[in-house]
Write a structure and sequence with these properties.
The structure is a homodimer. Helix content of chain A is about 60%, strand content about 5%. The first copy, chain A, contains 5 helices and 2 strands. Chain B binds a DNA duplex (30 and 30 nucleotides) through helix 2. Chains A, B: InterPro entries: DNA-bd_dom_put_sf, MerR-type_HTH_dom, MerR_fam, Tscrpt_reg_MerR_DNA-bd.
DNA sequence: TCGTTCGTTCCAGTAAACTGGAAGGTTCAG
DNA sequence: CTGAACCTTCCAGTTTACTGGAACGAACGA
């Protein structure tokens, strides 16, 4: 299968697939006599896995680590377990931060409705002193 | 005041302050005969405002826009009101996305505890089929 | 005078995940 | 034979907010 077909089947672009190869997420495939990449259908699953892992919030670097472990013949599950916990903590922390930001913004929005723009002194009374 | 003192008073670095100047967030200050930046104490407030706006989740670009309006003599509050609403929506959407990711991860973590690593088939049964 | 610490400029790099474009080769239909 | 639709490589840019480093000048205390 040529790169275009793989791209279509996996819902990506040829650019991205070459990028993944560059980033060692995909092995360098066979080449046709013309020099075109000639993929085994297996890579479709591999790319699907990459997408799954991305949806779970892993970076490509982490996905690469998991894939490396698997390619080495080991079961990556223990490592994945660590990553899941790490990532879960990061996500929870980030949610907390964002909720904080949201509360700040909601307060600003309230002030915006109450304030006469003409009263805006200093840099901006909406934002200041928050 | 020299750049180091400003940095210390505002809790930043000299690097960052030069970067802000480059990014048009701070006006180019006077120079001493030796070519050192010689700031008016006013910039301390300006930098504090930048920090406030960042805490509310605005990008430096947006802060720059607000500052530009103010520097032009207009009251930026109307514009700020728009930005606040925009940003509030973005933040809420992002929180929703992250909560989704968190739920996925929590499910993965549960699976991790239940699964025997030896059963890991395919790419990784923890992540797959999520 | 020496050393330290402050300041200056400019260039380059970081993370993340691509994306765009140039300049060219290949394959196939009409 | 021509044109399109595919493929190739390589280089550079996108976004955000800085950060690091080189190579240098200035101010000041001992």
């Amino acid at each position: 299968m040529l790169i275009g077909e793989i791209a279509q089947r996996t819902g990506t672009t040829t650019k991205t697939l070459r990028f993944y190869e560059d980033a060692k997420l995909l092995p360098a495939p066979q080449r046709t006599p013309a020099g075109y990449r000639d993929y085994s259908p297996d890579v479709v699953d591999r790319i699907a896995f990459i997408h799954d892992a991305q949806k779970a919030g892993f970076t490509l670097r982490q996905v690469g680590q998991i894939l490396d472990i698997r390619d080495g013949g080991e079961s990556p599950c223990v490592h994945v377990g660590h990553l899941v916990h790490q990532r879960l903590e990061e996500v929870e922390q980030r949610i907390t931060e964002l909720e904080h930001t949201r509360d700040r913004l909601a307060a600003l929005a309230r002030r915006t409705r109450e304030l006469d723009p003409a009263d805006c002194g200093g840099y901006c009374t909406i934002i200041e002193a928050t």
